[in-house]
Amino acid sequence: MERLADVKPPVENKIEYLRELASGFETGQIFLTALELDIFSKLQESQSAEKLAGELETDPDLTGRFLDVLTAMRLLAKNHDQYHTAPETAPFLMEGSPFFARYLMFGIRSRETWLNLKEILKKGPTGEPDKHEHDYDQQCIDWMARGTMLGRLQATVRQVRDLPEFSRARKLIDLGGGHGLFGIAFAQENPELDVVIFDKPEVTPMTQVYIDRYGMADRIHTISGDYTKDTLGTDYDIAFEACSFAGDENGSRAFFSKVCNALKDNGLFIRLTFTLDDNRSGPISSLVWDLKDHLTGHSHMPMRTNSELFQLLQEAGLTGERVIDMSPWCSMPMRLIISRKTRIFPGNSTGSIRTEC
Asked: CA 29 → CA 76, 92, 95, distances in Å?
């Protein structure tokens, strides 16, 4: 008989992986509840579970066990019976911090949707979209600027400046540029480049603050308006847009056509955005985002496959050329989409997509 100690398992053991998937709901609820209770702000200074429970009006024993889980998740640190927010995550978890991750609050508001997932799958979209509105005041623009400086801007600028067309470019428009840091960085990398930053009338005065701060007023100016409706200007070598446009198919065709008309022949349209793999097998966070938008019957920023996006660009007169994976430098799996204004008639085949992961 075969020695049992030498028997190879009949299949690879996936139980631990599946258990982690199932328990993700539990740890997610613990984390979101900690956000709701403002635990991380309250534990800027160390205190015991009993003292915190008194402040929260919660059960002391359960509170201690709750804090122990958060400690195991490396969100808190513990010294004897004293808990405090872990230093490495504190900048992102304490409300009022310059880097506070505001978007985490969306998770609290969308919990009900996920709790009712089975019912929604049976009955169809709820028709009750999650709210993702931003008040684009100075505080919000400054927060967005700090966030982009955590690696996303630097990596994007490095990719763009290495394009052979960039060093030859003399005119660039940054669509929905907000704080203007992308446009400022591009101007710094190419001393012959003039930059236009286009955004809403309530935003461009704040853009100008950043332009002046970096001493770029001689080569960067702003245009105020709605870039889906108003004139963008003409003869740009490069048009750039980073996660500011969120239109449906018809809106996308119209916007991309406006961009195409604003570019010189052979000019580049560069988008930093979210897309799905053509076989819709990833990235998982983008697929989850896409599912949630469809569960509510509302799309905050429509997700498209690379091929679907390239087709829309082609219909507007732009030939998609490259997809560059920016995930290593971004908090979510973003892609840099590079397309070119060509004389190919809209609707003609674009050939294969060059994807760089």
From this structure: 16, 18, 19
Q: Would you state the pLDDT for residue 103?
A: 81
So what's the pLDDT on residue 298? 72
CB-based contacts of 214, cutoff 8 Å, min separation 6: 184, 188
β-pairing verdict for 354-356 and 318-325? parallel
Q: How far apart are CA 314 and CA 138, in angstroms?
A: 37
Closest CA to 306 of 272, 278, 339, 270: 278
For the chain, what are the domain ranges? 15-101, 138-356
- Residue 349's pLDDT band, with cuts at 50, 70 and 90, is very low
Pick from 109-118, 219-228, 292-301 the range whose average pLDDT is largest: 219-228
Domain 15-101 top-level CATH class: mainly alpha
As a whole number, mean pLDDT of residues 240-268 equals 94
Label residue 352 by pLDDT band (50, 70, 90).
low
Listed in sequence order, the residues at least 6 apart from 85 whose beta carbon sits closer than 8 Å to its beta carbon are: 39, 40, 41, 43, 44, 75, 76, 77, 93, 94
pLDDT value, residue 109: 83
> Is the confidence at residue 348, as pLDDT, over 50?
no
Q: Can you name the residues that pair with 318 across neighbouring β-strands?
A: 341
Q: Residue 233: left (phi > 0), alpha (psi -120 to 50), or beta?
A: left
Which top CATH class is 138-356? Answer: alpha beta
What gap in Å lies between CA 259 and CA 227, rounded to an integer? 9
Is the peptide bond between 98 and the residue preceding it cis, with omega within 30 degrees of 0?
no
Q: Which of the pair, 25 or 352, is modelled with greater confidence?
A: 25
On the CB side of 333, how many CA atoms lie within 13 Å of its CA? 14
- Biggest CA-to-CA distance, the chain: 86
Task: Compute how many other C-beta atoms are within 10 angstroms of the C-beta atom of residue 326.
Answer: 19
Indicate if 138-356 has the same CATH topology as 15-101: no
Using CA atoms, how far apart are residues 128 and 341, in angstroms rounded to an integer? 39
- CA dist 284 → 121, 274, 275, 288, 337 (Å): 19, 12, 11, 6, 19
